[in-house]
Amino acid sequence: MTEQDYRKTDDIPRTTHFLPGTSIEIIRPIKTDLRIQHVLFDFDGTLSLIREGWPEVMIPMMVEILRSETKTDESDEAIERIVRDFVTELTGKQTIYQMIRLAEEIEKRGGKPDDPAVYKQMYLDRLMERIASRREALRSGKLQPEEMLVPFSIDILSQLKDKGVHMYVASGTDEEYVIEEARLLGLDTFFGDKIYGALSDYKNFSKAMVIERILKENNVPGERLLVFGDGYVEIQDCKAVGGKAIAVASDEAGKSGKPDPWKRERLIGAGADIVIPDYRDHKALIDYLFLGA
């Protein structure tokens, strides 16, 4: 089961409303006749900010590769525009898909691309160099986990834990890194071994597969599933099974408490029921979702 491309299924309604005194935007009311039992989170941008700024690593690298491995006469500005467009378009899928597209762009310009896995490793090496200081500061205690989390992440997770729901992580980042970074952020206490990420054999992992497994193993309908994510993949996959989807339109760099406009529009288009900028209004959100249960 491969990951699907973005497809706009909904327009932004002319009128939405906010829960009183909060930043919780209701796009379409959530039915609570079936109690939520399983909650799935995306990782980067939805909980973790360790990898904030990753496009500033990926995009220049791809421009550099397209320039060096083809004889294109396009300007650097034109190449960057093309790269930014397809990187943005594929954001939310496993990293390998962006590298597959890079290889296609090289071939389109008469070059002979390497295996996409080679480009992925090159990107990961550069990214790990960029975020090494963050990871080390968390490891040494110089940086507190809250500083590298979407605001109030621990609060929402604690409240969900108190509700007795089962929680999972599904990420397009390689599984070994997701598990390690979840531990550095103290999130492993909430998810245990229910942390899933991309595999070397990328066709054997997708967020849709994780969702299917959750529903099948627990013999529950999709209506009992709630998904939080800042990428279109998990929102689309959740809605495809009848689940409830919350778009986390996080301002990763600024932590402004205001939704990122591009994420908001894209995730509403993917079918999100609710949009939040972060988890600062966690109590009101939990009360709304569980009606005080």
Explain briefly what this protein structure is.
The chain is α/β, with parallel strands linked by helices. It has helices at residues 55-69, 76-90, 95-108, 116-140, 153-162, 175-184, 188-191, 207-218, 232-240, 261-269, 282-290; strands at 17-18, 25-26, 38-41, 166-174, 195-198, 225-229, 244-248, 274-276. It has eleven helices and eight strands.
Quick one: overall form? globular
The CATH architecture term of the largest domain is: 3-Layer(aba) Sandwich
Q: How would you state the average pLDDT, rounded?
A: 94
Number of strands: 8
Low-confidence runs:
none
The helix content, as a percent range, equals 40-55%
Q: What is the fourth-level CATH superfamily of the largest domain?
A: HAD superfamily/HAD-like
Beta-strand content estimate = 5-15%
Largest pleated sheet: 8 strands, mixed
Secondary-structure element string: EEEHHHHHEHHEHEHEHEH
**N-to-C CA distance:** 36 Å
CATH class of the largest domain: Alpha Beta
**Helical segment count:** 11
Structural class: alpha/beta
Numbering strands along the chain, what is their spatial order in the largest sheet?
1-2-8-7-6-3-4-5
* Rg calculated over all Cα atoms: 19 Å
What is the total number of structural domains?
Answer: 2
- CATH topology name of the largest domain: Rossmann fold
Can you put this structure into words, describing what you see?
- The structure is a single chain.
- It contains 11 helices and 8 strands.
- With 293 residues, the protein is α/β, with parallel strands linked by helices.
- It has 2 domains: 17-49 and 149-290, HAD superfamily/HAD-like (Rossmann fold, 3-Layer(aba) Sandwich), CATH 3.40.50; 55-140, no CATH class.
- The longest helix is centred in the middle third of the chain and has 25 residues, at 116-140.
- The two termini are 36 Å apart.
